[in-house]
Structures are given as C-alpha cells and as structure tokens.
Amino acid sequence: MKPMLTLTEFSQIKALSDPFRAEMMMRLLEKPYTGQQLSEYFNMSRAKIHYHLKDLEKNGLIEIVYTEEKNGIIQKFYQSVARGFTPAAELLPHIGDVSETSRQLILQMAERTKRHILAAPEEAFKLDKATEDPSQWNYVGSLWEFSATEEQFKAWIKKYFDLMEEITGMAKDAESNPNSKVYFVSTTALQIDEPSMKRFNKEN
C-alpha cells in the first residue's frame, strides 16, 4: 500500500465524495475485505456492494490483494491502494468536489476514531502516576485552537508528516518485539470559521 496516491481523474474525486464510498474506503484502508464481508458489515445487498467495489477498482482506488477459495468459490479480497489521497493540480478547478471528498474522508476518520475510543481496553486509559510530564502518559487527548498564517500552518503540517515517518520506522522496529503494543493515532487540523474556545484574560 502506497503512503499517498495523487488523484489525477475527476471520476476519482467523484467516487470518493460519496459518503457511503468514503465509509467503505475507511474499512478498506484498515485491512482487506471481500464483497461478502462488506455486505454483512454494512447490511447491504451483495449486488450494491459489488457495484461500489467495481467503481472504486475502476478508478484505481482499491485493488484485489489476494484471493482465497472457500467451498469451491474464489473469494476476492480488496484493499485501498494508498493510505491517503491528494488531488493533482489539474483537478483544483473542481474545488467544490475536491473539498467535499476531503470532508467525507475526514468525517469517516472521526467516526473510526470514536469507535476505537469506545472499544479500547481499560488499560489504555490507565494512569500509573499523576504527572504533568507527557513522556509518562499512556494516552493523549487534546484539543487545540490557534491563529496562524497559511504559510505557518502548512509548515506545521510538513513537520507533522515528518513525525509520522518516525512512527513508520518505529513500527518496523517493533514488529519482532514481543513486548510491543498496538497504538492508534488520529489527528484532524483544519481552518474553521470563527473561534469556539473563549479565553478570559485577567488583564483585559
């Protein structure tokens, strides 16, 4: 699976802007699924699931990663071709569709984060001791709101993705370590219309 896929066709944008397909892509980002498994997960007919899978596959967004025979039937396992998607410059004139695609994918990421929080083991929220030192915390839950120029924000995003590369290297080192645990990171950062966090300044 590639880290990032550049979308070069308008049809790819349209395919991902559909809320249901965006939700399906979240499942296919996590692991391979068959049409039958997705049909059961979404409680939807095989025919409808197959229609959506074929459209996503036709647009180069998912692929068959392996097949398996069960009861004489060949099952096809589909998975996303990339962990993330970004539009090519020539698609920017279709900004409305590009924006809606991004909105739907981020919404599905937020839903997935919610499910992980609700299903997390009690150990995930355990506090070994009271401390303000972040290196001693077992989890992070934080909301930030700030003002910055567009250039500053983009520079921060670059630093964030550099940090994600560090996580990728750390994960490879942990694959053979029997003491390693699985952690989930979810980050959303975007421009909003107006401040939602009001700060009281005693001096004013």
Automatic annotation (TrEMBL):
Report the InterPro entries cross-referenced here. ArsR-like_HTH, HTH_ArsR_DNA-bd_dom, WH-like_DNA-bd_sf, WH_DNA-bd_sf
Q: Tell me which residues make up the HTH arsR-type domain.
A: 9-90
Q: Show the CDD domains listed in the entry.
A: HTH_ARSR
What keywords tag this UniProt record?
DNA-binding
One Pfam family, short name? HTH_5
- Determine if Cell inner membrane is one of this entry's keywords: no
UniProt keyword NADP present: no
Q: Which Gene3D superfamilies would you find in this protein's record?
A: Winged helix-like DNA-binding domain superfamily/Winged helix DNA-binding domain
- Which molecular function GO terms apply here? DNA binding; DNA-binding transcription factor activity
Name of the molecule in the record: ArsR family transcriptional regulator
Species: Peribacillus cavernae
- Lineage per the UniProt record: Bacteria, Bacillati, Bacillota, Bacilli, Bacillales
